[in-house]
Amino acid sequence: MNNHQQILSRIVEILNRSKSGAIIIPQNPTSDAVAAATSLYLALNKISKNISLVCSTKQDLDLIGVDKFQQNLTVGGNSLMISFPYKEGSIDKVDYNIQGDYFNLIITPRPGYEKLNSSQVKYSYTGGNIDFIIVIDSPTLNSLGKVYQENQNQFTGCDIINIDRHLANGYFGTVNFVDKTISSISELILRIIETLNIEIDKDIATNLYAGIADSTNNFTSYSTNANTFENAAKLLKMGAIKKIIKKTVSQPSFQSKPIFKKPIKISSLSEFEPTPIEQIEKEKQPSQQSFEQNNQQNPLKPRIFSSNGLI
Predict the structure, then answer these.
(1) Which tens digits make up the pLDDT trace of 127-153?
(2) Structure pTM?
(3) CATH of domain 2-76+129-237
(4) Is 295 helix (H, G, I), strand (E, B) or coil?
(5) Measured between alpha carbons, how far is residue 231 from residues 37, 155, 178, 193 in Å?
């Protein structure tokens, strides 16, 4: 317990002296990891931290703040970035002028292309420095996928806060808040937010509760203990709404149905008489004429090819 308190104090120290950072979760994360990351993102925004929420795979769970996820490791800065859909060769030139107190950026489309749709223009800030990186629910940095593989230089020279409960965690962080006995990552995030003395509002409480419920299979898993129920009760008192995290339902796989043959009625021993080989070959191989007739009758029927040609 004392060790955890020292680690939490170290995390608070890093976050208090830093301005910009990123929260990263592994590719194809658990719902608990997404709930934990979005909760910490919402909390750090309350204390004016410049935070990016990053995952190499797209997230579409029914959680508050999930729309803030991006797939590239960038943080906001002082540079205004203007973004809009672009097709190769559609822009003829980009120019600017100053009229009075206004700076005008002029984007001219190439002849034959449609003009830029102003409703599709997005504005954001870039150019910021990453002071810290918070990695959630990841045993190694490689588990982050392309976010780490394509930005390894971004992970050097900054503090890495490793928050996890995996048994095989590699303790790769500057600070490692790893508890292998906890029932969910969301409970670790709850402790961090409380240590930072950040108010837990209804949205944060709802996300954290959903993460705990999902990780424990609605409080039925073997890892569920008294602390799990205490944390859940605390979040409910803070206004958490009980809900099931919606997930994408995979399509059922198609299985071939068993083929049942009708029983053969034997009327006489003559049915067991040998059939001439020529007759067997003739019955096994349909004639080319019958094949062509079938194709003409059903032109939409797929034709099957083998290595020797059309079957």
Answers:
(1) 567 899 999 999 999 999 999 999 998
(2) 0.67
(3) 3.90.1640.10
(4) helix
(5) 17, 33, 18, 13
